[in-house]
Write a structure and sequence with these properties.
InterPro entries: Glyco_trans_9 (IPR002201), LPS_LOS_Heptosyltrfase (IPR051199). This protein is 35% helix and 14% strand. The relative contact order is 0.13.
Length: 342
């Protein structure tokens, strides 16, 4: 099999999944510098990908000119202008399936999302075991194209310059910066407002730290204001900076505490230590942030909640599991933070 020299990589969303492509694409650049990578994604995710050396970015404007079948045909023509010889589909959704049809004649490899084994992990209590990680699934796509990939600890992005706006909001980096993203797309993966306040108060017992709160959207920004309250050295960063500036700031954290959500993956792609607090989902499904050890995975008591994971994405909550996140042991999080920081 002739190795491809110009690969179109398809991963349109979501934010965390796009972030998880970064270590694998960095490994591709390290192992195969002669292979050109062309990444197709939504424009709002370009800041995640733009610092990968030598990468070419193509916008998938799926709500505008690339909407509908005709729009995807137009997009396929735009992709063909780059003369690719292979497609690595890391998404495998309807849009990318249609694009693969329009891009006929190219070598193609498609991610195996492991839907059957993930369904079994949720439904079969006797099948509680780690599944292949998302990174491993991405790697297998390139292996199917004849390009074996093995990510290394060095396959992370370099820290960026701290944006001036961050300095004006939180001051200089004279003490340890701890990021906290207490919310998520589904309530089953998010801390309650009260629990988030409790966790912040516990973290502030660590000497010489500032807590930077991260979140997305106006509703979360308002809740984070309540979390920060009047505590000194606790700063709500949501809505204060551009996404590019947020990434620059994230890259300079000393540690990140996140739920099972995108912010943990964004921090991990810069090599930041990430503690993940899991609720009704579980790291066995393969979505833990890049190179984060088991000690960084804070999971509920499975004897108390034996049905976990109740779903893969946190969107299904059986009766009695609505308040799993309220059982988080804040002291356990703080002790792990101390181990990482000192």
């Amino acid at each position: 099999m002739q190795k491809p020299q110009r690969i179109v990589v398809l991963r349109l969303s979501a934010m965390g999944d796009v972030a998880m492509t970064v270590p694998v694409l960095l490994a591709m650049r390290r192992l195969y510098p002669e292979v050109e990578l062309i990444s197709l994604s939504r424009k709002r995710f370009f800041p995640i990908l733009q610092h990968i050396p030598g990468i070419t970015l193509i916008e998938a404007a799926v709500n505008e000119q690339h909407k509908s079948i005709l729009g995807l045909r137009r997009l396929a023509k735009e992709i063909n202008e780059y003369q690719p010889d292979a497609i690595a589909d890391l998404h495998n959704v309807l849009r990318t399936k249609i694009l693969r049809l329009f891009l006929g004649g190219l070598s193609k490899a498609v991610i195996d999302k492991g839907r059957k084994e993930k369904k079994r992990l949720v439904n079969d209590p006797h099948f509680f075991q780690p599944l292949p990680t998302t990174f491993e699934r991405y790697q297998r796509v390139f292996e199917d194209l004849g390009l074996p990939v093995h990510v290394a600890m060095s396959d992370v992005l370099s820290r960026q310059a701290i944006p001036q706006k961050a300095h004006s909001l939180i001051g200089d980096h004279e003490c340890r910066w701890i990021g906290l993203a207490p919310f998520a797309a589904h309530d089953a993966k998010a801390l309650s407002l009260q629990k988030a306040k409790e966790l912040v108060a516990a973290i502030m017992n660590i000497d010489n730290v500032k807590v930077l709160l991260f979140g997305g959207g106006a509703a979360e920004a308002k809740e984070l204001e309540l979390v920060a309250g009047t505590m000194s050295n606790v700063f709500n960063m949501a809505g204060r900076m551009s996404f590019k500036e947020e990434l620059q700031l994230l890259s300079n954290l000393d540690a990140m505490v996140s739920m099972d959500s995108g912010n943990g993956h964004l921090a991990a792609m810069y090599g930041i230590p990430v503690i993940t607090i899991w609720g009704n989902t579980h790291p066995h499904a393969g979505f833990a942030p890049f190179l984060q050890p088991e000690e960084n995975q804070i999971t509920p008591n499975l004897e108390q909640f034996p049905l976990i994971p109740t779903s893969i994405y946190g969107n299904k909550v059986p009766k009695g599991y609505e308040k799993v996140m309220d059982t988080v042991d804040c002291d356990r999080v703080v002790e792990r933070l101390k181990e990482l920081l000192f």
